[in-house]
Design a protein that fits this description.
single chain, 69 residues, alpha+beta, two-stranded antiparallel ribbon, 25% helix, flat
Length: 69
């Protein structure tokens, strides 16, 4: 995370590797679900969990199913 159109890139890799027949659904987010900061190398402070997280689904026709599940 975050995806930044990773689903489109992964779909191309899937096809290039010969797995075009596999039905894979992707959900990309624009952020991580935690409000956090790096304190020092190897240490992270988590201040909270986000209540809203935008996401995109590929293929788009599955958005309602995947987001509602």
């Amino acid at each position: 995370m975050p995806g930044n159109f990773a689903s489109l890139a992964m779909e191309q890799v899937k096809k290039a590797l010969g797995y075009q027949d596999k039905k894979i659904q992707y959900v990309d987010t624009i952020s991580i679900p935690w409000a956090c900061r790096v304190i020092k190398p190897g240490e992270v402070a988590i201040m909270g969990v986000k209540k809203l997280l935008y996401a995109g689904v590929f293929p788009g026709r599955l958005t309602k199913k995947l987001i509602d599940d």
